[in-house]
Amino acid sequence: MGRIFGVIILLLIIVGVGLFAYVWKKENFAIEQAGDLVVIYRQRQPKQPIEFPHWRHIKKVGLDCLFCHKFADKAVSPGLPPLRTCMNCHPYVPVAKDEKGNPITITPRIKKLLTYWKEKKPIPWVHVFKLPDFVYFNHKIHVKMGVHCYACHGDMTKVTVAKQMRSLRMGWCLKCHHNPQKYVAELNKKEGLNLPLPKVKKARTDCWTCHK
Ligand code: HEC
Ligand code: HEC
Ligand code: HEC
Ligand code: HEC
Ligand code: HEC
Fold first, then answer.
1. CA of 130, nearest ligand number
2. What's the gap in Å between 124 CA and the centre of ligand 5?
3. Which residue from 30, 97, 166, 183 has the least number of CB within 10 angstroms?
4. Peptide bond into 81 cis (omega under 30)
5. Segments making up each domain of the chain, as ranges
6. 131-169: per-residue pLDDT in tens?
7. Which ligand is nearest to the CA of 93?
8. pTM value?
9. How many angstroms is it from 203 CA to the middle of ligand 4?
């Protein structure tokens, strides 16, 4: 009797662990260490109207982030590129090859792009990185002080569709504010990056900085 009970408990544990691992992976959960706090958060990667491959435009085409996110060093918000920006290149540039190796300029994804253009409709991109309204954040200050985009957004060349690779929790902001150079140096080591260090060793941590 005791033995059967033991086997059932064991089976339940195995099923439980399996289920946990499945949900963890499917829902993109991740762990982040911020000081004494360990936070668990969901790496959101919402479905987009067009799967826009950042890595191709950065690594293969060689575009700068500011080419499309024009206001990152000038304003609170970097902004998303208007469809006009895409039409500088599409559908004129080859984006793939057919079986014979001939260049293709229109794929299903580019076809969608052209449909939005023809119908004069903006592409309804879904936001990935979002702070609650009661938090004040400003891109310009961070970019001017030499904080690299990847420090906060993760390596965009590693994903096809934009993904939330940081928790965006208060403990995360503060961990960097306590010592931005140390934070980025550690990140470089942990994620195999080579980001320049921010210009300062300390950023403000009083409540009014982020809660006005
Ligand atoms: C060719 C234009 C283009 C370039 C170059 C580009 N982006 Fe983007 N970016 C977009 C578009 C379009 C979106 C919206 C689609 C999406 O979120 O996948 C986007 C979305 C994003 C988002 C998510 C925004 C949100 O809504 O939360 C981040 C973060 C981002 N880009 C960072 C970068 C960084 C960092 C670089 C440079 C390494 C870069 N981008 C280069 C076009 C571009
Ligand atoms: C210090 C951290 C940090 C740095 C550095 C940073 N971002 Fe962001 N970014 C954020 C946060 C936080 C949000 C969400 C803001 C909100 O919801 O108010 C965001 C939002 C965005 C968005 C979506 C908002 C929009 O305008 O529609 C884009 C695009 C973006 N960032 C691109 C960039 C690019 C490009 C760079 C580098 C030039 C960069 N970010 C540097 C933290 C950062
Ligand atoms: C400077 C030129 C240029 C601009 C601007 C540009 N692209 Fe591209 N895009 C390319 C090139 C070149 C490729 C193919 C890269 C490769 O060789 O993988 C590409 C590939 C793509 C693909 C992948 C095609 C597929 O079917 O896999 C999509 C989707 C795409 N671009 C959408 C966009 C969108 C949306 C914008 C505007 C936000 C944009 N592009 C702006 C040059 C550009
Ligand atoms: C990777 C490092 C890093 C992260 C992450 C980061 N910051 Fe910063 N932050 C800085 C640096 C560096 C400065 C500039 C400090 C200075 O100018 O002395 C700064 C400055 C600021 C300022 C302006 C303060 C002033 O002096 O007026 C605000 C507001 C701010 N950050 C909010 C945030 C919020 C909110 C988050 C989290 C969502 C965040 N930051 C995440 C590095 C970071
Ligand atoms: C560097 C930016 C920054 C500073 C400084 C900061 N906060 Fe926050 N705070 C945030 C962000 C981002 C959030 C939203 C994300 C979250 O809840 O973790 C937040 C959320 C909160 C919340 C809501 C928590 C919840 O669970 O809804 C409270 C309360 C709060 N902060 C209080 C404070 C107090 C008190 C101080 C000063 C000791 C402070 N904050 C300093 C960035 C900051």
1. 2
2. 30
3. 97
4. no
5. 2-80+125-210
6. 999 999 999 999 999 999 999 999 999 988 999 999 999
7. 3
8. 0.94
9. 6
